[in-house]
Amino acid sequence: MEQTAFDDPAYRAAAVDLLGVLAYGELTAFERIAEDAKLAPTLNDKAELAALATTEFGHFRQLRDRLVALGVDPMEAMRPFVTPLDAFHDHTAPSDWLEGLVKAYVGDGLANDFYREIASFVDAETRALVLEVFADSGQAEFVVDRVRSAIEEDPKLGGRLALWGRRLVGEALSQAQRIAADRDSLAALLAGSVDRPGLDLAAIGRMFTRLTEAHTARMTALGLQA
Length: 226
Hints:
mainly alpha; globular
């Protein structure tokens, strides 16, 4: 029988952890966006957010099905990430509709970029799934339009939302560091092994540079100071 990456127990544990954290992240994204739809100022906005929430749930199902195909219980795979992800969302609960939009675009965007970076170290099938899940589903255009329009109407919103965006990034980076520290398998995936290259300090520095540049571009698109 042909060997695969999943024959390595350490790799399998890392891939399952990655799929588990992503699955729970998409499940909570569905829940949050559906909840934010209640704050939508217009019926059209409510419908747009409902569509985005449906997309997030579709992503969750894809990740869940991948775990099942690997012979893994999706609920068990997600369980280790419930507490840290719930804590992140508790600390970054938006106070209004616009903060919710910025969180979905800026906060989730940074987290998605980080997981795309990790996907560089997994097998081709898992990597393709991660990249598909995090492809733009139309959320960016919708959020940018609504936030920029709101700032044009009331320029004072810019300062408040910029501060909110910076806070989200700090919380998101702390969350990512906590998860990596708590899950040895994910840390090992980034570190590599004898036959599988990982990230050295210089590569880690370049990765964070890419994450920072992508965040700055998102804030600029919203009309906010990074």
